[in-house]
Amino acid sequence: MSGTYLGMPAFPEAAREAVGDPTLRGNLRHATHTIRAKRARAVAEVSDWAALREAGKRIKDHTLRHLERYLVQLEEAVTAAGGTVHWAADADEANRIVTELVRATGESEVVKVKSMATQEIGLNEALEAAGIRAYETDLAELIVQLGKDRPSHILVPAIHRNRGEIRDIFRAEMAAWGRPAPEGLSDSPAELAEAARLHLREKFLRAEVGISGANFMVAETGTLVVVESEGNGRMCLTLPRTLISVVGIEKIVPTWRDLEVFLQTLPRSSTAERMNPYTSTWTGTTGGDGPETFHLVLLDNGRTDTLADEVGRQALRCIRCSACLNVCPVYERAGGHAYGSVYPGPIGAILSPQLRGTGSEIDASLPYASSLCGACYEVCPVAIDIPEVLVHLRERVAQGGEAVRAGNKVVLRPARGHAAERAAMRAARWAFAHPGALRAGQRIASRTRRLHPRALPGPGRAWSGTRDLPAVPAEPFRDWWRRTDGGKGTAK
Fold this sequence. Notes:
Distance between the termini: 65 Å
Structural class: alpha/beta
Shape: globular
Largest sheet: 6 strands, parallel
Strand order of the largest sheet: 1-10-7-4-2-3
């Protein structure tokens, strides 16, 4: 899988650097607190929110259980409507397909709708290597692209930037990409938005090829759906002659009736709006209306392996609302770049290690990028139990093995490494299996508590370096229980 931020350290080191940046922390704190407060008010307006959440979960689970059937139905419907469907097993194949499709048009530039899938596979970089320039048209993605930056949030990719920084980026970089920023541009949101509109309008009007993702795909009709707040997506989806959509295979829903549930939960969970300002739908091609040619690239890139994991597969329910990022205390302080992936925050901590595996230092560290407070689960509109998956993935990392397919399931293949942790677990298992030894150990620990170090030695130093060791009580629980007659307070 592409999408790893090459050269980035594992999460603990990257997060340590991020929390030392007061400007970054201030930007994140202001943005996440504002969004979460608005979301809470928007959700409180809906009397049946819990029922909608459960409905979304069940629709997604049902679709994932029957994914192969709905994908075939989708392909047949898209083809019947005049579109062409391509299947991409991984990032390299998807990039090759899209590059060849753009080359076939004879064009050397494309406009893009904001798309996590194309970021995941590194499409912009692949197109650039082929001599094709891709222009991001989402305002936040434009800021990231002009600033030679990386997105740090699912919904607001430039959340780590403040208005002054955005103004400076526009002034310095816009001219190299097209229409320059207006003279005397200030950091007023209205002026910044107008500068982006003028800059992008030229690209919209001359672009012959548009590239998008999709929030949803409706199997029964072959319809794709993009929801957005600015209108740039509508321009990319309607003006170019050729439209290429790269979509993960999990984004499918069976029927329009199912879609109705998510069109209620997604806007409230993401932008805190009752409905999206722009909801664009398209089904194949229609003569004289919209693109003349439509290609759908269905992307696997680790999704079928994730689907085979009975615990981890719930990550594929994600509708990319970003609500989990906005309530996460770890994300608020570390920011999105520390996760080393286009999928940051709690959902990224469980999705990236499954799509990419836990073999790299970055991906092995992501399941630990959480306090397990559970706030992410509480706000998730499709009830993904992120803490459960995090613990599940920690087990995978601790065992030092990769997840491999065995029939219809994923099992862990033991590997070398993490010897100290496995030895500690074996010792604990032996102690719990021998009550006498456990009792003796507890009494010794209590009587020697004043001699205990404040930090663990050896490999344990990494754990106690960021945590206080719990104090050992003066009396083991078993002795207290026996002394007080089972907790009734009557000493024997």
